[in-house]
Specification:
The structure holds 2 protein chains of 2 kinds. By secondary structure, chain A is mostly helical. Chain A contains 9 helices and 2 strands, in the order αααααααββαα. In chain A, strand 1 (159-160) and strand 2 form a beta hairpin. The mean pLDDT of chain A is 86. Chain B has 3 helices and 7 strands, in the order H-E-E-E-E-E-H-E-E-H. Chain B has helices at 8-55, 135-138, 167-192, and strands at residues 61-68, 75-82, 85-96, 101-109, 114-121, 151-152, 160-161. A 5-stranded antiparallel sheet of chain B has the order 1-2-3-4-5. The termini of chain B are far apart. The chains are: A mainly alpha, B alpha+beta. The interface between A and B is medium-sized, with 34 and 28 residues.
Chain lengths: 205, 193
């Protein structure tokens, strides 16, 4: 990507052009594990959003200070720092949710998207741009998780945010891991189709 | 990026890099930990007290009788009293499930008949293993004695019926956690006379 993009373009890039889930298809493991319920999907998304923004800011601030030879270990240290912070904060102030997604919160450390954005973007761009990149990536990820978990909960449990809406027997496969891959694949296909059909301007900016 | 020979300057710079990141990161974590750990600790304690109270709500006093170690974890067993009279027992126990240790409280009356079980924590498969939290499963334990706390995979009233597709977690709750917990309590009470 050219460094001349405006903040708004960088922001949109994370949501559409390079959406972590639907476009880059990385960080799928935790996304499939937590998206069995809309609530878990949303909170996981918010946690990743926070980490993305903070890592982007930190890496970008330190980009001239970090020696190229050890940039990857340093990125990992920064990522694990912010993951630990959100982990502790959620354990203290969102106990109920933490009980369900705590395990996957710690796994954010291994998110490919965090390392990828640190290496590709934040270490080469100024702080404001990196902030917008983190916001875009984080919100794009959150939106993706919300869409996936909405459909999986609806089909697999017959409920939305815990409220029963369908009384017929739900389709169990939707909340099994395999169903997660199906959901992601179908939504990815839908987004690609929409892109080809309507979104020419979006892809070729 | 061109790979250059490492010079002494590079070594020093890398060292400074790491030291600064460690110290700054460590400092941030110290602050966050100091702020959050008391909240977590109080929350854990309150949660446990509330959970014990919920097991036998009529009791006005719950006292620890002793401890035991299911799966090498620290767990206690308690006696519930009301106005100096023994009402029943509460056993804290763990079962090895599909992907986690399931943390359970079992309430029993004086004759060691199960009154209630409560699942405090687990990390079983979301949407599948967590079916063990359903009341329809947990209520099966009510009124059971030790002999009937066993898992079967057919429809049953006498024993505990497994949840379809959740056999491992159901077994962990029934055969591992609850049965061993009740057995332990029975043995220790007999020893005491």
């Amino acid at each position: 990507m050219k460094p001349t993009h405006s903040n708004w373009q960088i922001f949109k890039n994370g949501i559409f052009t390079e959406n972590i889930i639907f476009r880059m298809a990385i960080s799928l493991c935790p996304s499939i594990a937590v998206t069995t319920k809309l609530k878990n999907g949303l909170l996981m998304g918010i946690a990743v959003w926070f980490v993305h923004v903070m890592v982007g800011l930190t890496v970008s601030t330190l980009r001239k200070f970090i020696h190229p030879r050890i940039r990857i270990p340093i990125f990992m240290l920064i990522i694990s720092l912010w993951v630990t912070v959100i982990n502790l904060v959620m354990a203290a102030f969102a106990r109920d949710v933490y009980k369900e997604i705590g395990l996957y919160l710690q796994l954010i450390v291994a998110f490919a998207s965090l390392l990828a954005r640190s290496e590709v973007f934040a270490s080469k761009n100024k702080v404001t741009h990196s902030f917008m990149d983190g916001m875009g990536m984080g919100i794009g990820f959150t939106i993706a998780l919300v869409i996936i978990s909405f459909f999986r909960e609806l089909i697999g449990k017959g409920s939305i945010w815990g409220w029963e809406v369908v009384t017929t027997k739900p389709l169990l496969i939707s909340i099994l891991p395999a169903g997660g891959f199906f959901a992601v694949g179908l939504l990815m296909a839908l987004f690609n189709w929409m892109d080809v059909r309507f979104g020419k301007a979006e892809t070729h900016h | 990026m061109k790979v250059k020979e490492m010079t002494v300057k590079d070594f020093i710079k890398i060292m400074i890099n790491l030291v600064v990141i460690y110290i700054a990161g460590g400092a941030i974590l110290v602050v966050v930990y100091a702020k959050t750990s008391p909240v977590i600790f109080v929350g854990d304690k309150e949660e446990k007290e509330a959970a014990l109270k919920k097991m036998i709500p009529e009791a006005d006093k719950v006292e620890e009788l002793g401890t035991w170690e299911p799966h090498h974890k620290h767990a206690g067993y308690y006696i519930a009293r009301k106005g100096g009279e023994d009402m029943g027992y509460i056993v804290e126990t763990y079962g090895k499930g599909y992907s986690s240790y399931i943390h359970i409280l079992v309430a029993l009356d004086k004759n060691l008949i199960v009154q209630k079980i409560d699942i405090l924590a687990h990390a079983e498969t979301p949407g599948l293993g967590d079916e063990i939290e359903r009341d329809s499963f947990k209520n099966q334990f009510v009124g059971k004695t030790l002999e009937h706390i066993k898992l079967v995979k057919v429809e049953t009233e006498e024993d505990i019926q497994a949840i379809t597709g959740v056999t491992i977690s159901s077994r962990a709750v029934t055969d591992d956690a609850v049965r061993n917990g009740v057995k332990m309590l029975k043995e220790r009470l007999e020893v005491k006379g």
